[in-house]
Design a protein that fits this description.
- The longest helix has 24 residues, at 657-680.
- The chain has 735 residues and is an alpha/beta fold.
- 42% of the residues lie in helices and 17% in strands.
- Helix 2 (41-47) packs across helix 3 (82-93) and helix 17 packs across helix 18.
- It is built from 23 helices and 24 strands.
- Bound molecules: adenosine-5'-diphosphate (ADP).
- Residues 10-12, 42, 75-76, 79-80, 104-108, 110-111, 114, 151 line the site of adenosine-5'-diphosphate.
């Protein structure tokens, strides 16, 4: 029997809800389910009629990149009543809908849980009233419910991040970047109020990503003199030479007595105590708007497919649950637990139990708050000569986020009393003696700068270089080294380590920090720079899509990534592409033929646009132009084929908040590790990375052993299996 599943978006809208809807619809159809769209949130379930409509494959087309929700959303008072929910039960049962995917925040999910709990009783009542369109003796199936976390606030337990939070963060950080350029021209202080209800996530992460100077969030226990602490820290920053100040305040921030902290209160305090011009910007609903970021599109797609699969596979009496992303894996958590623990934070804040609220937010939240506090309060410490200098070098190709990492690394090292020297123009410059002392203000304003201020470039050591590099390190008293880059940089470091016998000067602790748009390095799920590149790609492809016009047109978009298929596959997922050609798979002629045939069929059945993403090294022998010609020949006059090579725009521009934050967290942890190693006289080399949501240091030799040396990428790549999701999203089931 075909299972019928309803899907709704409810409560506050969030960018990425459409991407989740598309994934639920297409994932369900690909498994033979029938999907019904319930319009206007829970109100649509109560109203029934044309508010509940079947959704076909095409109805989920062209929506991936759209903000808001095409189903509409509402806050439904009717659904809060038992009578309203009884109407909803009737409307669902009379359409034989026995499953629901609910995309929304804790309110919407609470509604889902309540409906599930009352389902049997409401059915009985309806049956007793003779209202159920059931045959005698027939019992309707129990309701299966799966929730998806759709909320910019990121306030839900059961997921490390909710759908919409990353986009909102991008919007906030973009606004703060803009404010900072004007603030610094006028030496102004800005207070930016951001959304998040009881959750400080957006305020905290936007402050970290924009190098905000102070943050106020609901979960932090403030002491009675919090404003004096804030004023003192901001004053110190001015003494160091800072031209402007940004304070980020969460809308839910509170005084120690529980009363809300209003932005105007902070304004008055700062104006009076610092004697400066202070302006307030309340960002408001722009934070909800706009098309979803690459991360949100991929997150929503992964979770949406996992949710419909979970619903179709679960035994009928499974208690309702939510699919969230935990440690980078879609994971189910019972709705009762999600709601209970999510609401517990709000309750703890209401009751003034701030440390409890903070502990409920999890480790990553606490780590980021700790880092922000340290960065905003840190000042250069007197030089501790026992620590010597730490050298920082950006090696290999440049990547967005390198400057953010260097900024934190420099300040953390100076704050501990170490000296810092920067290698100029990567190892090529360093072996030629290009090294500069870096101080506190040398990295001011770097957080949002693209490329690398230190200069970089791929370099393979020449025979004389190692001796020269050893001398340069010794001349500057370098006791440890932080190397930022991709595979080339990792190989450079591996060579230094291999040659330690001959060059004892390389017997210093070294950490490699993954910064490459290709995401091709071992021992990390994400490299800094890849998120910015993905966003650059989707922005370009969104524009290309607009030019399709009325003709049938297929675009082959060539993206970077070298020998690693991460950028092509993830950008294909985020753009809604039909196909991705990856270096891991190569391109066989038979595959090309089948793909042309599918494109042709797609166009015949009403599609007007096709996107194929091609990795720059997907094939040894066919380049993008060859693929275009083959497709054009095979497509005959039925569709046009255009090629577009995106090139270096992919690695340019300001780094995304995600990249800035990862860069800052990696740099912080790497420097602390190097300082410990200097103190303990431990010279081992490591790579730092994000593994399953945790920052880990892996010994360099172990990391390098994860590489497939002939392929130039790690043997195991977590994202590779997402190719199946792309297939399901792009291939409409036949018949
Ligand atoms: P969000 O889902 O973004 O948290 P709301 O809190 O406004 O948004 O909830 C959205 C809708 O979910 C509400 O308008 C209501 O219809 C439904 N809802 C919320 N709480 C409950 C509840 N306790 N019982 C039944 N329905 C609820």
């Amino acid at each position: 029997m075909t299972i019928k599943v309803g899907v709704l978006t409810s409560g506050g809208d969030a960018p990425g809800m459409n991407a989740a809807l598309r994934a639920v619809v297409r994932g369900g159809l690909s498994r033979g389910a029938q999907i019904y769209g319930i319009h206007e949130g829970w109100q649509g379930a109560v109203d029934g009629g044309d508010k509940i409509q079947p959704l076909g494959w095409r109805s989920a087309g062209g929506i991936l990149q759209k903000g808001g929700t095409i189903l509409g959303t509402a806050r439904s008072a009717d659904f809060q009543t038992r009578e309203g929910r009884k109407k909803a039960v009737f409307n669902l049962v009379s359409r034989e809908i026995s499953g629901l995917v609910v995309i929304g925040g804790d309110g919407s999910l609470t509604g889902a849980l309540t409906l599930c709990n009352e389902w049997p009783a409401l059915l009985q009542e309806l049956a007793a009233e003779g209202k159920l369109p059931l045959a005698v003796g027939e019992t309707p199936a129990p309701l299966r419910v799966v929730g998806l976390p759709g909320s910019i606030d990121n306030d839900l337990f059961g997921t490390d991040i909710s759908i919409g939070a990353d986009t909102s963060l991008q919007t906030i950080v973009h606004a703060v970047d803009q404010l900072e350029s004007t603030a610094s021209s006028h030496q102004r202080t800005f207070i930016v109020e951001v959304m998040g209800r009881n959750c400080g996530y957006l305020a905290l992460t936007s402050a970290l990503a924009s190098a905000g100077h102070w943050v106020l969030i609901p979960e932090e226990e403030l002491d009675a003199r919090w404003h004096q602490k804030m004023v003192k820290a901001l004053q110190r920053g001015r003494e160091e030479g800072r031209r402007h100040v940004t304070v980020i305040a969460a809308e839910g921030a509170r005084h120690p007595d529980g009363l809300p902290i209003r932005a105007e209160t902070i304004q008055q305090i700062l104006q009076k105590q610092l004697n400066v011009d202070v302006r307030v910007t309340v960002l408001g609903h722009v934070q909800r708007g706009g098309g979803p970021s690459a991360f949100d599109r991929i997150l929503a797609t992964r979770l949406g497919v996992a949710a419909i699969d979970d619903l179709l596979d679960m035994p009928a009496d499974t208690p309702p649950r939510m699919i969230g992303l935990i440690s980078n894996q879609p994971t189910a958590t019972p709705l009762a637990e999600v709601i209970g623990k999510s609401q517990a934070v709000g309750k703890a804040i209401e009751e003034g139990a701030y440390s409890m609220a903070l502990s409920l937010r999890g480790t990553s939240f606490r780590d980021q708050l700790g880092l922000l506090k340290i960065l905003s309060q840190a000042t250069p410490a007197p030089v501790d000569s026992s620590l010597g200098a730490i050298a920082i070098v950006t090696a290999g190709a440049d990547a967005p986020g390198m400057n953010a990492a260097v900024r934190v690394a420099v300040r953390r090292a100076l704050n501990a009393g170490a000296r810092v020297v920067g290698g100029i123009n990567g190892f090529r410059g360093m072996v030629r003696g290009q090294v500069e002392e870096l101080n506190w203000m040398s990295v001011s304003g770097w957080v949002g700068l693209g490329g690398t201020q230190l200069g970089s470039g791929r370099y393979d050591f020449e025979p004389d270089d190692l001796g020269r590099l050893e001398r340069v390190l010794q001349q500057h008293g370098v006791r440890a080294m932080l190397v930022l880059g991709g595979l080339n940089a990792y190989h450079n470091v591996a060579e230094l380590v291999r040659r330690r016998n001959r060059y004892p000067g390389f017997n210093i602790p070294i950490v490699c920090l993954p910064t490459t748009i290709d995401n091709s390095v071992p021992a990390t799920d994400y490299a800094v720079g890849a998120d910015t590149a993905l966003n650059n790609i989707i922005q370009a492809v969104d524009k290309i899509k607009d030019t399709a016009g009325s003709t049938h047109r297929a675009f082959i978009v060539e993206v970077m990534g070298e020998q690693c298929g991460y950028l092509p596959l993830m950008s294909a997922l985020a753009c809604g592409a039909e196909r991705a050609y990856l270096p891991e798979d190569g391109i066989a002629v038979g595959r090309l033929e089948a793909d042309v045939e599918e494109l042709r069929e797609g166009f015949r059945s009403g599609k007007s646009l096709g996107i194929v993403i091609m990795g720059e090294y997907a094939s040894h022998h066919y380049n993008t132009d060859v693929i275009r010609r083959v497709m054009q020949e095979e497509g005959r006059d039925e569709f046009e084929v255009r090629a577009c090579i995106l090139g270096h725009v992919q690695r340019g521009g300001v780094p995304t908040p995600f990249d800035r934050i990862q860069a800052s967290r990696f740099a912080n942890r790497a420097i602390l590790h190097l300082l410990d190693q200097i103190r303990e006289d431990d010279n081992s080399a490591h790579v730092i990375g994000l593994l399953g949501g945790r920052i880990e240091l892996t010994p360099l030799d172990e990391a390098m052993a994860l590489l497939d040396p002939s392929a130039g990428r790690p043997r195991q790549q977590w994202w590779y299996e997402l190719g199946q999701v792309l297939e399901r999203m792009s291939r409409s089931p036949k018949g």
